[in-house]
Amino acid sequence: MITDPKTAAWLDLLDPGDPAPLEALRAEAEQAEVPVVSRVTESLLKAVIAMKRPERVLEIGTAVGFSALVMCSVLPETAEIDTIEHWAPRIEAARKNIGGSPCRDRIRLMEGDAGEILPGLPADHYDLIFMDAAKGQYGVWLPHLLKCLKTGGVLFSDNVLQGGTIAESRFALDRRDRTIHARMREYLWTLTHTEGLVTSVIPCGDGAALTVKTRTEE
Question: Does pTM surpass 0.90?
Fold first, then answer.
């Protein structure tokens, strides 16, 4: 977490919580050490959805289905979610959790590698994209994401500050972390220096980037 522990704990106390089934799913995921969106980032995501009121949402990184179900709980009743997951054990868990929820007819689980699925998605189709998957692939997937995001749409990228270590010198990092940090720095630079994109990087949770696509490339 980027926020100091005392402030982070206090912010969690402000969170009104989710409906009981979602709270139970969060507890189950955390006990199994499955990464799910932090409470403070969840609050930000809900606020963005409440402002944007998207009809079509794309999620990259379903995990056990927690964030898809959270988004569905605050989306307009006519909205739909496509969510991508490639790891078989999590696909099985997500299928069970989504299938047993009131949102089962509004969430489509797309099984497979995002790098293979994204190029085939329709252009200018999604109002909001939530990205919370392999951090080293964010930059690789970005052109496909921007293609299928509508003008005026929002790209919400989670975990972009790597718990605050993104600001460290590469020599202060373990060798295994240097590549992913370099890729994430490049990704954030692209988001903040590309014409037609307006981006704010927010130091909440492990860092979130909110990007609005202001125009479609010719």
Answer: yes
